[in-house]
# Entry
Amino acid sequence: MKRKIDLNSDMGEGFGVWEMGNDLALLDYIDSTNIACGWHAGDPERMKNLVKAAIQKNVLIGAHPSLPDLVGFGRREMAITPNDAYNFVLYQAGALQAFVNAQGGKLHHVKPHGAFYNQAAKDLNLARAIAQAVKDLGKEVILYGLASSCFVDAAAEVGISLWQEVFADRRYTPEGYLVPRSKPNALIQDEDEAAEQAVRMAREGEVTALDGSIVKVQADTLCIHGDSPSALDFVRKIKPLL
# Structure
């Protein structure tokens, strides 16, 4: 029996006159989009326009909330409380949800961004607060979170649906976390290697960690980084393989 994997992409990560990524072209190849909500990137006009384009192309719409770190693109860790995490998600995702509702669509999911995502993947209290915020956005809203991380237990405890996420262009630690971008070899630059890793995670449910060990993963959704210059070429390559 064939199994379909969702392809998602982080989008709307320009700001003002500054553009990033080829979002409109990518929408033709992905299944779901994670739209920046203004705290690491993005702005109201981009949010509105991407929601409109996604609805026209039948792409599932998700919010991409961040830590309040516009200067650092949301990639710097912060000491936050579970209450902070809850508020951050509800505030940002609620703004995007308003744009979605105004255009007759539905918010499908929430996927935290950058350091917010990585901190919660390792901290059950933060993950649980994020899951609760997602639940309070509406009973049909799904959480996207790192496979085999704290997001799994948090979603089960709160009682929401979770799509476990994997990454084609990121290397993994033996514990199943993403190697921090600040570390050497954190990113997979070779498209063929990234495609091979993606197919293996989808088909076999495993990935080789940086130390050579095997990490088990459940691949419900695969991230295509929209801010990569080669994102469009890569998604054209990987989609037929999946």
The longest helix spans residues 82-102. Residues 6-168+219-241 form a domain with the TIM Barrel fold (CATH 3.20.20.370).
